[in-house]
Amino acid sequence: MTAATHFPSFPAGAEAAESADAVLLGLDPEQREVATTLRGPVCVLAGAGTGKTRAITHRIAYGVRSGQLMPASVLAVTFTNRAAGEMRGRLRSLGAGGVQARTFHSAALRQLQYFWPRAIGGDLPRLVERKVQLVAEAGARCRLRLDRGELRDVTGEIEWAKVTQTVPSDYPAAALKAGREAPRDMAEIAQIYATYEQLKRDRAMIDFEDVLLLTVGILQDRHDIAEQIRSQYQHFVVDEYQDVSPLQQRLLELWLGDRDSLCVVGDASQTIYSFTGATPDHLLDFRTRYPNATLVKLVRDYRSTPQVVHLANGLLAQARGRAAEHRLELVSQREPGPAPVYAEYADEPAEAEGVAARIRQLISAGVPAGEIAVLYRINAQSEVYEQALADAGVPYQLRGAERFFERAEVQKALLALRGAARSGGNDPLLDDVVELGSQVRAVLSSTGWTAEPPAGSGAVRDQWESLAALVRLAEDFARARSGATLADLAIELEERRAAQHAPTVQGVTLASLHAAKGLEWDAVFLVGLTDGMVPITYAKTDEQIEEERRLLYVGVTRARHHLTLSWGLSRSPGGRATRRPSRFLNGLRPGSGALAPRAGAPAAGPAAPGRGRARRSPARCRVCGRTLTEAGELKLLRCEDCPSDMDEGLYERLREWRAARAKEQGLPAYCVFTDKTLMAIAEAAPGEDGELASIPGVGVRKLDRYGADVLAICAGQEPGDGAGADA
Description:
The protein is α/β, with parallel strands linked by helices. 45% of the residues lie in helices and 10% in strands. The protein is built from 28 helices and 16 strands. The strands form 4 sheets. Strands 3-2-6-7-1-8 form a 6-stranded parallel β-sheet, sandwiched between helices. A 6-stranded parallel β-sheet has the order 11-16-15-12-14-13, with helices on both faces. α5 (104-119) packs across α10 and α19 packs antiparallel against α22 (486-499). The longest helix is centred in the middle third of the chain and has 22 residues, at 459-480. It starts with 19 loop residues before the first helix and ends in a 13-residue tail after the last helix.
């Protein structure tokens, strides 16, 4: 990995940038043009991995260091707390710490809180914490029952309506015009939407979309307040501009007024959030609105190898539509690496096992687990990979799971660090310890930190990884800020906690393609790449299909060095091999032509594990006979809604046994057996090895390890002494 490809949390530069010109050191010609063009409108078209954050932070820092920009007059806006936190860290290291870097929502909320008493009077209504619960209540009041999936999708429709500034009565017509795939009758959704809004009014509550709507309303109606904001912020930078919604664009216009000191950065080929109201039109129309705008294209890719970049360019070469007309041809700046691997498997579990095995090989070869990611189209695909990685003893983290700063061990560590910072030289833990990283390690030793990680991949290892992330963060902080103290670090950690800007935890990341946007890893596995999944089956129009292609492009460009693309020919073992690889790979993977292969045709690339398995009939519910497709249903061998004949007492005994075994081995309980597998065992009550092995989620390894105990419990006996547990 070259220095240009991977930027640390706190890039060095604060001391080096003794003059404005020093800020420009290390920038390529196009990045330098971005950094030095400080007046008038600027549009930066920046491909994946081209250092756009580096370019815009150095632009702001150069303006501040040269005296052309006052730090407090600049507002930098992006779309995630993580990105805003990273930008603030970089700006501080470059000597531009007074610049505001925020998300649209946090900037608007700050303004709303400040101006609400003056504009409206009284206290700002409280924010809705759980929007889904309120939508469920609205549905119930309308006598409409929503299942979990419908509830999520109806909530998404309400959010879309609000960011496109569509009122409830206009929703059906607007949704039809936009080609929305509504989860319920559009008139019913409009009714739920109207009731949801009424519930909020009755309870003096607002949601995140209201934050933007109310801020826009105040700025439109109160010119004095709008002018006060404009007098504070004279220069704006907007990152990920292809993702702005009409509502966010309107807010930006109100912030700007009649000025044009605006720098926007984006890539139309990474527009993947249209379902939320995002549109690349504002980026693509920028020079129409500002004919005198400076246009800069960043195409030097510092992230990915030429092999990865070649595949990414090939994907976009097949694209159609307006965004495709503005695609950027990336040019890798890295040394050559391995060719992308294409792997075909008989079914999804075989694919997950193959991916887990390859990940173990990479870790053994020296690739850190935290630099590996498994990316899938929908979150429901994660379970089989969680199981496969757990079986392989590989630590992992689910992106979007428990927040880092809410973990018990992290809260305990922050408390200890704050206490040590207040004590200063009076803390005996810090006697004769000078260097900041060493001080942090000394303090964290009191909370369970050890220099060497514990064995295994369970809860104890997860806790160690959390503390290790804090240690690495402290070391990066010390390198970036010479002379930084424990008190400085405590302030930094508090700011990160408030912004939910978490450090990297060393475990394989499991994430959806949407959640992976803005991130990167040394090794990326793109899984489940079949037609019907990528592109997703409900993508019908040409525009929707093209967004699915862009989503795959985003996935490909997350990889720095190793890239594997895989698919399974059936959902479950023994299922019919009716699936085919994603059409987006046609003409790109070796041996594939421009036309999609027939279903079940052999794919090019390395021979895939599991291809020789016997093919049986699709799994069917043993109660109603319906074909099963969901992972949880496949484990139970019945539909979730079909009646269960589970032996409740047996299930509880199995749960107690599992808890004891997990504690014994230092593993999370699900690494022994998942709840669904225990339910399936309690329903089947197997009496011999063959019956137990046939239950999905058991498998040969777990049969060897736990089979004797489970069969004993099912027979009403006490489990054995655990001999052979580690076989």
